[in-house]
């Protein structure tokens, strides 16, 4: 299989682009796959690695409840956050690390109900079998893979780009 072409984050558009991606996305939590899909969207925005949105039907063996937390994106609208529990104990184990747009703005309607996961601390996220690195900082939710190049927003000295 030939290597994936490089994607330079400085060539991504602003306003962001929403499109389907054929990439295979998986999320593993406590050695268990909790989400698995080849039917996702990604959002590409200047200086950001892709942010992936998975259909709610991709969740496996995990339940979610809505959090009171929310945030606002100038492009996509108000984000709803979710708390996840992993049976059998059903105790809330992870809070506010998954979000969706239940009423997205014009141009992003396809994202309605799709879920995005912050990579890193709680679980491992994979794109086509490659473990991702989280976008620097703790605000943005992009996933960094080996095909991403260019300086990424989120780390020290990048606020206000």
Give an overview of the whole structure:
With 161 residues, the chain is mostly beta strands. Helices cover 0% and strands 43% of the residues. It is built from no helices and 15 strands. The protein has strands at 7-8, 17-21, 25-29, 32-37, 40-44, 51-53, 63-73, 77-85, 92-100, 115-117, 124-127, 130-131, 133-134, 143-144, 148-149. The strands form five sheets. The chain has a four-stranded antiparallel sheet, with no helix packed on it. Strands 7-8-9-10 form a four-stranded antiparallel sheet, with no helix packed on it. Strands 2-5-6 form a three-stranded antiparallel sheet, with no helix packed on it. A hairpin with a 2-residue loop joins strand 11 and strand 12 (130-131). The mean pLDDT is 94.
Largest sheet: 4 strands, antiparallel
| Outline | globular
What's the end-to-end separation, in Å? 36 Å
- Judged by helices, strands and strand pairing, the structural class is mainly beta
Helix percent band = under 10%
List segments where confidence is low: pLDDT < 50 over at least 5 consecutive residues: none
Strand content: 35-45%
Task: List its traits.
161 residues; mainly beta; four-stranded antiparallel β-sheet
Give a concise summary.
Helices cover 0% and strands 43% of the residues. With 161 residues, the chain is mainly beta.
Give me the secondary-structure topology:
Blueprint: E1 7-8, E2 17-21, E3 25-29, E4 32-37, E5 40-44, E6 51-53, E7 63-73, E8 77-85, E9 92-100, E10 115-117, E11 124-127, E12 130-131, E13 133-134, E14 143-144, E15 148-149
Parallel strand pairs: 1-15
Antiparallel strand pairs: 2-5, 3-4, 3-11, 5-6, 7-8, 8-9, 9-10, 11-12, 13-14
